[in-house]
Amino acid sequence: MQAGDDALFLGIDCSTTACKAIAWDREGRAVAEGRAPIPLSNPAPDAWEQDARTWWEALALATREVAHALGDRGARRIRAITITHQRETFVLTDERGEPLHPALVWMDARCRAEVAVLAAKVGEARLHEISGKFPCTTPSLYKLLHLRNRIAPHLASRPVRMLDVHAFLAHRLTGRLVTSVASADPTGLVDMAARGFSAEILEWAGLSASEVPALAEPGERIGEVSGEVAADLGIEAGIPVFAGAGDGQAAALGAGVVGPGVMYLNLGTAIVSGVIAREYRTDRAFRTMMAATPGAFLYETDLKGGTFTLTWLARLLGGDAEASSSTLAALERDAEGLPPGADGLVLVPYFHGVMNPYWDDAATGLLLGFSGGQGPAHLYRAILEGIALEQRLHTDGVERASGPIKELRVMGGGSRSALWCQILADVLDKPIVRAGTSEATSLGAGILAAAGAGAFAGIEEAAAAMTSRGEVFVPGERRGVYERLYREVYVGLYPALSGAMGRLAQIRESARSLTRPTRHENS
């Protein structure tokens, strides 16, 4: 298939709660899109699971919506497909790719014991050096150990396939068990310097080389859509499928971040940011990921309590799923009139522990400065400011390794808030530039598809042609207040209270054990 001027490139974004399929043209315009929800289960505290088959069902439904919107003639313009996806989520399957157990989602944090055991056995420094990820509950490696040690020990004694979301969907599309190296690296199983699975880590995980998929570089052709699958999706058979990347790496590409000096910032369920680097380095200030541009790396930061924290606030105020958006819109209007610092209320947003720079799964959120004159709008503004202050901590750490960052390109649902974008500009004292599309993650996949199909000379050329910049927010007169708030208050809060957080976590676990049903024997 040749990629002519009218060619379309299908970016499939299989995220935590939905799959989006968007057909992009050569100018980076979304021509048609489809969306389908993906159920998420929370069967126990810290447990988050999905039926991997719903990933495929959602992909099929979303793609059929695109094909329907384009019509038969328009659907024939699709020249390539690339997948991007939620990271660290994985499923164990049999040799045919059929799930043997529900997939463990990136948020699943039941593996604290496995993190401690492997870190003590191997050493935190060694795990960090090979994988680029400091030991914590996020990488799939520790979730896998917990799954086979405690949840489903029968899976430890039989042959399996460990598949990330990209590998699972690529297998359904093409029949090949293959994934992108930029999709496999969040699992924690990859030797980052060698750009392949680490034999050493596979041994620690109890996996053989035959139990993980083949690896391809982002933008590399990995197969084509089979006839039977194409008929089900409403597209032509034989469309080539090109290796993608995890959603964070794809979002950077979709924001036009292909070189140093510019940081992407995704204001989503989690707050993820990163800069492109050519040198492989590890540091507690960030985790090192493969970039969507082959041969490059991302120095990436991750705060797991992002827009989730705002959803939590809406639920706290009694709003259901339908009412939460209007509740948050009203809070934003009220918060705009409040002074910087939310009248003395400061929030540390560690609602799901903290990764960089502290790597403490026992960390919790903090609120300092409550008083009787404050209301819900103060808490709303404190959340926006707390996340911005934490992003300042992350950005400062990355800059020490990457060099100066001159601007941040922002995308994701939170980027729609002009108030939040301005707070970020003031707190970081750097320009905040909206990406040309809020669907930068899917666009990143579309860019890889377009480059792979030969529509452009390479990935960077495709990114230059298909991405754009939106509104710019520059630092204002409030940045001095935020500088004092950051230096004099925020940076000292976690170090001062981390010991109490750890003790509180122990007490919480002890208290939880008292709520579990006990068996009483008859006397």
TrEMBL record:
Gene3D superfamilies: 3.30.420.40. Residues 263-452 form the Carbohydrate kinase FGGY C-terminal domain. Pfam families: FGGY_C, FGGY_N. Residues 9-254 form the Carbohydrate kinase FGGY N-terminal domain. Keywords: Kinase, Transferase. It comes from the Bacteria. One of its GO terms (molecular function) is kinase activity. InterPro entries: ATPase_NBD (IPR043129), Carb_kinase_FGGY (IPR000577), FGGY_C (IPR018485), FGGY_Carb_Kinase (IPR050406), FGGY_N (IPR018484). Belongs to the FGGY kinase family. This is FGGY family carbohydrate kinase. It comes from Polyangium mundeleinium.
